[in-house]
Amino acid sequence: MLTSAFSDALITIARRLHAARINWAVIGSTSLVLLGMDAQPNDIDIIMLRKDLNRIPALFSDVFCTGVIELKTTTKEKAWHVKLSLAGAPIEFVGEDETGLYARHLALNEIAFGYVDAVRIPCLTLEANAQAYDATNRTLKAERIRDFIRTKE
Q1: What is the DSSP string of the chain?
Q2: Measured over all CA atoms, what is the biggest interatomic distance in the chain, rounded to whole angstroms?
């Protein structure tokens, strides 16, 4: 279940990114909750292409956010991020090239939708999240997702 701070932040993010016509998706634990799993997210992680990540500081100029910073990753893929807080919820926007660990799923439209109130929130599919967890050696999380998928079939 999402806290009210996370729900409020997701609604704000969705409205701003949709208005800016940015292709994006929630990833990680928050996306798992939005897609029906039981999880306790610590933050909201958003994936997008790097070119769109460069627009985030201007789109969220009303709150303090970091500039675009290169991430140290556990794979050979490069990634950058911008961090900020909305409604008390920590947010990390991650930008990758189209072949990146998460962005390749975005480019392939491997998207499922969750809802916060009546606002549609794009998320990477459960299987796409599981593949990303496998690629970053978080196999227990990947197995948990696949077990959940099997129970829904």
Answers
A1: ---HHHHHHHHHHHHHHHHTT--EEEEHHHHHHHTT-----SSEEEEEEHHHHTTHHHHTTTS-B---EEPP-SSSS--EEEEEEETTEEEEEEEE-TTSTTHHHHHTT-EEEEEETTEEEEEE-HHHHHHHHHHTT-HHHHHHHHHHHHHH-
A2: 44
Report pTM: 0.94
Q: How many CB atoms lie within 10 A of CB 30?
A: 25
Scanning the structure block, which residue is given the tokens 């016509």?
A: 21
Structure tokens at 72: 């140290």
Whether the CB-CB separation of 82 and 93 falls below 8 Å is answered with yes
Under 8 Å CB-to-CB from 72, ≥6 apart: which residues?
none
pLDDT (tens digit per residue) in 9-38: 999 999 999 999 999 999 999 999 999 999
